[in-house]
User: Fold these one by one.
Assistant:
Number 1:
Amino acid sequence: MNFDDMHVLAKRIDSQIRSLETKVSDPMSMMYSNIFGQGVKVLSMLKDTIENIGRNKKEVEHMIQEENSSFDCLLEDFNTVNRFKSEVEVFLNDCENTWSSSFSDYKPFISYDSSSTTNKGLNGFSDLSIQDDIQIADQSLNDSLNNITMS
């Protein structure tokens, strides 16, 4: 192939490329206008599907970010509550220590230990004489009523 033949071939290729560029300004419209190329329509549908998948992926990523941020907020709230609980337990233990050092016969009713949250010492009610307390309360009420009626 000599130079002139190559030049003619290059011009022909160039003109074909230019004609294709003018025909295919919008490649999707060409795909739908091509009656014989069913594969082209499938490619267009695949492109639409890919776009839908991209949108769905972005929505899922956004939902995951929202869930992560709400979980972070819940975790922060949980940690705040735990810190507050620890501070209260320390304060209550200090109060218990103060009372036990001030009063030798003082017995703590509930243990404020963070390792156990069960109420210990509830069986201490069996040591109390509830009848005596009721009689004292009744006597106090009667005394108050007598004072009111006397005055």
Note: The chain is about 75% helix and 0% strand.
Number 2:
Amino acid sequence: MNEVKDGLVLLAGIVVTAILVAAGCQPPPANTNSTATNATIVNTNSNANSNSNSTVTSGTITTSEPDQYQANIKLTLETLGDQKASTPPIGAMVARSGADRVMEFTLPTNEKVIYLDKGGMNYVILPNRKQYAELTKEAVGFEVRRLMMPEQIVQQVKAIPGIRLVGEETSNGRTVVKYAYSGTANTGTQAGTVGTESYVLVDKETSLPIRSETVSQSQSGGNVQGVNGLRMVTEMTDIKTTPDASIFTLPSDFQKIDSEQVKAQVNLIFNAAAAIVGQLINQAKAPAPSPSASMSASPAR
């Protein structure tokens, strides 16, 4: 049970903070509960963005969100240090058609959670369960879908302090403009002084931030349970300037459930995903068997 709880805390800390770091904005206050110690070094990453001594001259980044588009976003994470572990990629399909927006999460459990903004209404859809509900902030605690929505990423990327223009290059056949950032921050935690190096690629055709990579690592030898840093990559692919109209449709044959039911269902889905991530991390932490142990375990000939 503790492994699941720790996995959930770690997943939430890593995912939320990593998305915010990639977007260059300030995370929510860090959880001081002892079960969240593994997330401490992760939560300090965004402090390097907002409270750092930047090593580059301040600049501006040219990026925006198109009125019409559809794309896939993937987030991958890897811890650094003596205890290395990586999480399964977290994927989402995002799209916009004027005021209507949709975001479809695909979790490691193969469950899907869809957030749909349509006609001034907000919905959460659970296709595997054929259920949906009208969404309120009170029902889910906070607007999860905004964390990876390009509109939010665009606004926060523009606010990154000390960013510099690197120049144009090609990425996956698309012409992009590269921006870079570096900085350090004294976190006042076990992580010590954390250095952050990151870059953002902005697509010239759509002005969308299509790739970012951030490496935040302790510069003072600090670590939290063997973890001294985090590498994360966010990537946007399969970009279309005309979205599929059908993805903005609320299914007519799904059961409508109330906000409390959807809260329980979404929590169940994300808890299951957290359990998988926690298991993978625990496996990564398990020491490899010694040669002598392997020999003693061999069957007699």
Note: The chain has one domain: 2-91+144-242+259-284.
